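ARCHIVE CARD
CATEGORY: sequence design from structure
SOURCE FIELD: tokenized fold
FIELD CONTENT:
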């Protein structure tokens, strides 16, 4: 007998689930998506501040802390949980930024929040496949392609043919790699919850971080 979570996921993949999850079945509304994204981002900022304030000073932030205090903005069991736990631990230890002589270096959490704040939804790429066994077998994450407003600083990254082949926005409902940066969201009755970075978006973050040291 199949587990309920597996059966539910098969229904979702077949497009038979609740309408708020079947985003690939209709055209992507950028205006509505932008409003939802900004509402999520405000909650995400608030949850990060709450988590940092709840964990005793000097102690690392754990995945359990993130799942507890960021419940409204981060999908439990997702890759985003571990990313956030690690970055919050570093930020609380070293500060969101640190000084190196006259140069101020920004940590990964501060840079990630900056890039998220400067991003707007551009399209959606359907459901993201889970390759490895998941603690949450009914977890379904949706690909949100994000346009990052970062001026000329990230242009070399997006123009690099080794990264993008080429840089382009895929059609709605289509997941394409090495094409456009995207974030992953769980999209359910409670609203958006962050599930992780696509490698194309994470690469932009890594590029921005490394750029500080050149």
């Amino acid at each position: 007998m199949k587990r309920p979570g597996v059966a539910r996921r098969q229904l979702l993949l077949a497009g038979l689930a609740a309408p708020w999850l079947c985003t690939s079945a209709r055209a992507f509304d950028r205006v509505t998506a932008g409003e939802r994204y900004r509402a999520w981002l405000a909650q995400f900022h608030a949850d990060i501040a709450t988590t940092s304030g709840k964990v005793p000073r000097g102690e690392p932030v754990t995945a359990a802390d993130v799942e507890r205090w960021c419940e409204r903005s981060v999908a439990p069991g997702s890759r985003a949980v571990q990313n956030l736990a690690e970055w919050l631990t570093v930020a609380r230890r070293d500060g969101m930024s640190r000084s190196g002589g006259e140069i101020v270096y920004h940590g990964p959490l501060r840079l990630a929040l900056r890039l998220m704040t400067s991003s707007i939804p551009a399209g959606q790429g359907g459901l993201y496949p889970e390759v490895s066994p998941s603690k949450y077998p009914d977890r379904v994450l949706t690909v949100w392609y994000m346009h990052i407003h970062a001026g000329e600083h990230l242009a070399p990254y997006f123009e690099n043919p080794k990264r993008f082949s080429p840089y382009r926005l895929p059609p709605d409902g289509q997941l394409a790699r090495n094409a456009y940066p995207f974030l992953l969201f769980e999209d359910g009755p409670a609203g958006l919850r962050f599930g992780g970075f696509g490698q194309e978006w994470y690469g932009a973050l890594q590029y921005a971080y490394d750029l500080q040291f050149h």
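CARD ANNOTATION: The beta strands are 97-100, 103-106, 119-128, 141-148, 182-188, 191-197. Residues 1-25 have pLDDT under 50 and may be disordered.
SHELF: design records, drawer C
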